[in-house]
Every structure is written in structure tokens, then in C-alpha cells.
Amino acid sequence: MDPSQDTLTQETSTSSFTPPSTRPSMGPSTTSTPGTGAEARSHLLNTTYDNSSSNRRQAPVSITDFRLFDGENSPQNIAVYGFGLGALFGASVILATMVGTSIPQFWLFLAALGVFHSLEYIAIALFNPTKLKLDSFLLNHSPEYSTATAAGITEFLIELYFFPQLKSWGLLNKIGLVMVIIGQAARTLAMFSAKSNFSHHVEYYKEEHHVLVTDGIYSILRHPSYFGFYYWALGSQLMMMNPVCIVGFAGVLHHFFSERIQYEEQLLVRFFGQDYRDYQARTHTGLPLIK
């Protein structure tokens, strides 16, 4: 369910920034005398008249050269993903604040999704561009995360139909919204404090440039991005008044983070030795029942 990885070492993705694919430069046709009709037109379409090596370029000849949703970190995919998330945020905020709307919490949840996924990509783009990839949006992070998101939306809509009084806007919804804001703020601060040391993946080996980040929000919390996502996820379900998902999310997230933090901290002790043990002693996770 968790789309986050908060390690105090560095971004561990093994994939590099993938530039947009380019077609190889093609020289002029080898036919010395073009024919007529279709043959002549074919010759003209495939001939490059500027023969200088510095300017010899082949323009795309088909719309298929501009592929979308192919997993590549290409400008066109980045633009589509970014535009989609921005549109989702903007439209959701408008719908949530419209006078007379009966379910502002649903639209606020969609707006929170737009902010969350956008900031994940932006943080890696700013501080770890060589490790940037389209998956840095975390839109398809894992089947578990997708299932959890779909479950939250499905429960809300089913209960809205059968128990509309449960979905009225009140104090608990507002508390959930505050939790979402605090969670997102904590996770964003974690990414911007750790900079290139932030990771979406577990780092198994210490590289020469790895450092132990202990300032900023890390001076208070050992795993602030975990803290942030935990309360973001629970807050979103409280905001939507999804009782089933609140209980389910709490159990799954606690199990996941307790195991992940224990495993990661074994690695971090191996990386940094006594320095990390001292850091452990003066900080906490901020997660219930997880030291």
C-alpha cells in the first residue's frame, strides 16, 4: 500500500534518466536520378537537402514517433502526466469549494492525490535528476497501493448511496483534512531536507557519497516520509468517513512500516555504525507502537 521509501542514505533507483528517443540522422537518398510519380514523391520525402553533418536531421514521419504512456520519461509523457494531475487538482478544488456541494471531502481527496503524486516527481526532479523516471510520479507504484486507493473511493461511493447521512461534512471530516495536510507537509519536508539522499527504494549498499541526514525534520523524526504517508493515508479515509478503510489502512500500514523500519534500520546501522545508534536514541518515528 505504501508508495514511499524514507531512507537516510540516498535515492537507490537503478534506472537513469531516459532522454526522449531520437531517430538516427539519415543522409540523402542514394538514388541519383529520382523517378516520376509515386517514386519521385517518395524520393522528395526522404531526402535531406542540408548535407552538413551539424544540421543533418530527420523529422518525425509519423505520429507514432510521439508515443504516450509507453513508460519512457519523455517530455510528452511528463507533460501529459503533469497536466492530468494539475487538472485533477484544479477541478477538484473548484468542485469542493462550490456553494451547495454535498460531498466536499470526496473532491478534497482527489485534490490531495494530485498534490501527492506531483510532489513525488518534483522532488526527484529537483534533487536527483539522474535517477528520474516516469515511475517517480508513483502513479503505478504497486498493485497494493492502487487497490487501496480504489477501495477508498469505492467504499465512499457505496456508503454515499446507502448511508448518505454518514457522508455529511462535520468535525471528523475536518480533523481528517488536517491530518492529510500535516502528513503531506511532513513528507514534503522529508524529501526537501534529504535532497539526493531521499529514496523511493531501499538502499542495500553504502556508496561513497551517502550521508546520514540528521537535520531539518530528521532532527525530530527518524522516518518523516513514513510518518507523513501514514497520517496522510489515515487522514484521507477519516476525511471521507470510510470506517472500513480506516481500520484496514491502520492495520496494513502498521504491519508494513514496522517490518520496513526494522529492516532498514539494520542496514543503516551497518552503514553508519554508532552514529546511527546515537541518532536512534535521540529521535522517534512518530508512528504508534513503532519505536
TrEMBL record:
One of its GO terms (cellular component) is endoplasmic reticulum membrane. Keywords: Endoplasmic reticulum, Membrane, Methyltransferase, S-adenosyl-L-methionine, Transferase, Transmembrane, Transmembrane helix. Its main location: endoplasmic reticulum. It is found in: Endoplasmic reticulum membrane; Membrane. It catalyses: [protein]-C-terminal S-[(2E,6E)-farnesyl]-L-cysteine + S-adenosyl-L-methionine = [protein]-C-terminal S-[(2E,6E)-farnesyl]-L-cysteine methyl ester + S-adenosyl-L-homocysteine. The keyword 4Fe-4S does not apply. One of its GO terms (molecular function) is protein C-terminal S-isoprenylcysteine carboxyl O-methyltransferase activity. It is an enzyme of class 2 (transferase). Its EC number is 2.1.1.100. Residues 9-37 have a biased composition (Low complexity). Residues 1-40 are annotated as: Disordered. The chain crosses the membrane at residues 78-99, 106-125, 175-194, 229-253. PANTHER family: PROTEIN-S ISOPRENYLCYSTEINE O-METHYLTRANSFERASE, PROTEIN-S-ISOPRENYLCYSTEINE O-METHYLTRANSFERASE. This is Protein-S-isoprenylcysteine O-methyltransferase.
